[in-house]
Amino acid sequence: MPDDNRPGHDALFDDDRTDAAAQGLAISRLQPTARDPSRLSVLVNGRRVATLPARCMHDLDLYVGLAWTPDVEARVTAASQQDEVHRRALRMLNRRALSSGEVRDRLIRRHGAASEVVDRVIADLQRIGLLDDAGYGRMVLRDLTASGRKPAGAALMRSKLRQRRLESALIEELVTEARASSDPDAEIASLIEVRLGRMERLDSATRYRRLYSYLARRGFESERITSALKARLRELDD
Predict the structure, then answer these.
(1) In terms of pTM, does the model score above 0.85?
(2) What SS3 class is residue 110?
(3) Positive or negative, the Cα torsion across 120, 121, 123, 128?
(4) From the centroid of its chain, how far is CA 46?
(5) Largest Cα–Cα distance in the chain?
(6) What is the CATH class of 20-127?
(7) Do 27 and 62 form a contact (C-beta atoms < 8 A)?
(8) Fewest C-beta atoms under 10 Å: which of 3, 49, 96, 105?
């Protein structure tokens, strides 16, 4: 017999879909599982057909003696599938923080979950606060720009947030918020000074090329980089 904590469902109807009364099928027991009493096994004529959270019994109007009709079977099957996806998502979030997009991608691409089921699960996790894309995005940017780390421009911030599968509108909102009190020209200047200390033996053209590439990777705008580099390297050449 499958583990009681694994949601599952076994169809009990014959292929001709004879009605429940003719087959004498009915829910015979709603039994708490040994591992988790908040989950109940649904038994039909003594055979376990699904294991669901106790709240689903009320939501689905399941009770002992209820005829096991095709409609009831379909509702239990759908609830069991959603419960399985929900539990898988919780296991993901127990391991590490994720965005809604990351959870969606993993459930669909790695585990083959149906997109409509995933959407319902994600909406539920957002409703109860287990998925918070804005808070997650702010955490990503705090880690990127934490004290002692190199400054990051808007482009790098956007790239990091896109990698986390956040929505475009939210990305722009978070980047604007994070950059509100920053001084990109001062940040570029500080990065130039740090890198110049390693380039004493290089000619001006090589310095420019390497510094430009480095600052672009840090996410700063091309115009700001060009202006800062020309001014600073001109000082060195004078």
Answers:
(1) no
(2) helix
(3) positive
(4) 39
(5) 99
(6) mainly alpha
(7) yes
(8) 96
